[in-house]
Specification:
Number of strands: 7
Strand content: 5-15%
Structural class: alpha/beta
Oligomer: single chain
Strand order of the largest sheet: 2-1-5-4-3-6-7
Distance between the termini: 94 Å
Radius of gyration: 23 Å
């Protein structure tokens, strides 16, 4: 007879453990879908960005130069790519590239930077991105405070909505390369005009607003040819 109370206590204990585990899982999911544990982006100043050393990825032109050369005369729109093989990054690159006719009319170039070059990833990315791509080994365009989203990002509702959207739009990708450091998009004015728009990725697939990019690009004031 004494075994019956013991069985009941054991059963109640297992139920408590199970409910506790469920509670922890639910709490984790809820917290992962908030920004409580996301580090806040630190604004990148023009002075911080313009001294970044970039490398050309053209086979015929291997050179290193300061990023400020990109926007010295006419400003620039620059995408800091999280990972070239990511289908979400390819989707945003394609959408940014759809602005190229308008940007060309404004005389504003479109560029991208990547943090590493693996195999043919950059060349494959060029099918989606219609501007020149440079290597930012110091990852300054991902800073000043580099922000990461780890595997917890995969249980965020917004991320799955972004996955579904890109998949429905026909984008595909691979898992090559580092993809946890979040990227962004900048619109930088000519000369010392400054950073006119800075979009920092909040989560995987958080795209910049294209209208905001155009509005910022329209504010760029080209520098005279002899302006230093």
């Amino acid at each position: 007879m004494s075994s019956l109370p013991d069985l009941e206590l054991f059963t109640m204990g297992m139920w408590s453990i199970g409910l506790g585990a469920i509670g922890v899982a639910v709490t984790g999911i809820l917290l992962a879908n908030t920004d409580l544990f996301l580090s806040k982006p630190e604004t990148a100043s023009l002075e911080f960005l313009e001294t970044t050393k970039l490398k050309s990825l053209r086979e015929a032109e291997e050179r290193t130069f300061k990023a400020g050369e990109l926007w010295k005369k006419n400003g620039a729109v620059i995408m800091a790519v999280r990972r070239p093989g990511c289908f979400l990054c390819r989707e945003e690159a394609s959408e940014l590239s759809s602005l190229k006719p308008q940007l060309d009319r404004l005389g504003v170039p479109l560029y991208a930077v990547v943090k590493e070059k693996i195999g043919t990833e950059v060349e494959d990315f060029q099918h989606y991105f219609k501007g020149e791509i440079f290597l930012d080994e110091t990852k300054k365009f991902y800073g000043p405070h580099k922000r990461k989203m780890l595997l917890m990002g995969l249980i965020r509702l917004g991320v799955w909505q972004n996955f579904l959207r890109a998949w429905k739009n026909g984008y595909s990708g691979n898992l090559e390369g580092e993809g946890f450091i979040l990227g962004g998009v900048y619109v930088i004015g000519a000369g010392k005009q400054g950073v006119l728009l800075e979009h920092r990725e909040r989560e995987f697939g958080d795209k910049v607003n294209l209208q905001s990019v155009l509005e910022a690009a329209e504010k760029i004031k080209p520098q005279a040819a002899d302006t230093e």
